[in-house]
Write a structure and sequence with these properties.
This protein is α/β, with parallel strands linked by helices. Helices cover 45% and strands 19% of the residues.
């Protein structure tokens, strides 16, 4: 599935986060907090992660071929620490981008710990409470101010209500992701709403 990421000023969906979901035929939907650790412990996360990257880039290339110019510039794909340690990861991503004739900035790999970044994502646990907790609002404003000083863009995740949207927008975040704009969508629904 993909969840739209909306540019703050234009309110255009110019990126999407790729989210892995698993539905078991007997047990139904199994959350990523349950199945990702299993994949990491077995090292299968490397194979599955490459599959996610390939399928995501293939989808973006197909949409660009069908439509031509689309506002969707970038896919954000989460990688685990186990994947990041794989010496083949970055070469694989570049090879897949070249294979699908996509620019190298069409994908952003998200890994939050100890990696130099050009974008910071404010976690949903911070943004969901900013309307009730003045400390959280002040913390977000501080983070955005600091990031602007050092040239790092900020994306707010988990924005669900108009009040929270107003706060993060006024704080100066560059993009917004959350149920205020849309929930994670199956690819065909995402395509109809944001690409076509």
């Amino acid at each position: 599935v993909m969840q739209p990421i909306v540019e703050t000023k234009s309110e255009v969906c110019d990126a999407a986060e790729v989210l892995l979901r698993f539905t078991h035929p007997e047990f139904g939907v199994i959350g990523p907090m349950d199945f990702i650790p299993i994949l990491e412990n077995s090292k299968e996360i490397i194979r599955v992660g490459k599959w996610v990257i390939d399928q995501s880039l293939q989808t973006l290339a197909r949409w660009r071929e069908q439509i031509g110019h689309i506002p969707l510039k970038r896919l954000q794909i989460n990688v685990s620490y186990v994947q990041f340690k794989d010496p083949e990861l970055l070469g694989y991503v570049v090879e897949r981008l070249d294979h699908y004739q996509l620019p190298h900035d069409a994908v952003m790999l998200e890994l939050l710990k100890d990696i130099p970044a050009d974008m910071v994502k404010l976690d949903h646990t911070m943004t969901r409470s900013i309307t009730e907790k003045p400390k959280d609002k002040a913390l977000i404003e501080f983070i955005v101010t600091y990031c602007k000083k050092v040239g790092i863009a900020v994306c707010a995740e988990g924005v669900e209500k108009v009040e929270a949207l107003s706060i993060v927008r006024n704080a100066g975040v560059e993009c917004i992701q959350g149920y205020y704009y849309d929930k994670p969508l199956e690819l065909d629904t995402f395509y109809r709403k944001y690409v076509k």
